[in-house]
Amino acid sequence: MSDMNGPESGGALDAAFFTRWLTAAAAAVDREADRLTELDSAIGDADHGANLKRGFAAVRDVLDKEPPPTPGAVLITAGRQLISTVGGASGPLYGTLLRRTGKELGESATVTREELAAALSAGVAAVSRLGGAQAGDKTMLDALFPAAEALGESFDAARDAAERGALATVPLQARKGRASYLGERSIGHQDPGATSSALLIAALAEVATG
Fold first, then answer.
1. Distance between CA 105 and CA 96 in Å, rounded?
2. How far, CA to CA in Å, does 190 sit from each of 5, 121, 131, 132, 148?
3. Cα 196 from Cα 102, distance rounded (Å)
4. How far is the C-alpha of 39 from the C-alpha of 49, rounded, in Å?
5. C-alpha closest to that of 54 among 22, 97, 87
6. 3-class DSSP state of 22
7. What's domain 7-209's architecture?
8. Per-domain residue ranges for the chain?
9. What is the pLDDT of residues 147-177, one digit of tens each?
10. Please, what is the end-to-end C-alpha distance for the chain in angstroms?
11. Closest Cα to residue 97, out of 63, 122, 72?
12. pTM for the complete prediction?
């Protein structure tokens, strides 16, 4: 049973909560790195798991060393770290997601789930602009767009929406990124970026409800 004053009931989310989220995300990426790389080997460069594992480990270390004072600062710090340590497209895309979300949260010491949902939507829109992708293009956005929308309802709804979005990439033909070079051969494979995005949102729900 969740705490009636906790995050799920609209309680305040502080910097420590956001640090726990990204620490949980790092653990999830570490656990699933081989699976992410396996998915990426089918339609990409076979480095998605290794790249994200390295990036989120660096995020965990920097947050542990110098804990930022606000939710926004936690996400901006994490985003910068991902951009500087993750190769390929994943670093800039994930870095943009977290940095823009953090900037939207501003300098508040605490934020609500609804405020996080609005900020995450802005972060997802920034990723869409950067990569030139939309929903249905078989990218990380297929998990992130529905997750950001569902976060207005609850953390669990966001997790479920992200997982459904990732699974829904299987029958799609990729229209952006490395996978798009394969044309119809990209059909039948789950998108690794959508899969790792679902892990990120699942870690958020885990920390919020745990």
1. 14
2. 37, 23, 19, 20, 20
3. 19
4. 9
5. 87
6. helix
7. Alpha Horseshoe (1.25)
8. 7-209
9. 999 999 999 999 999 999 999 999 788 777 7
10. 9
11. 122
12. 0.93
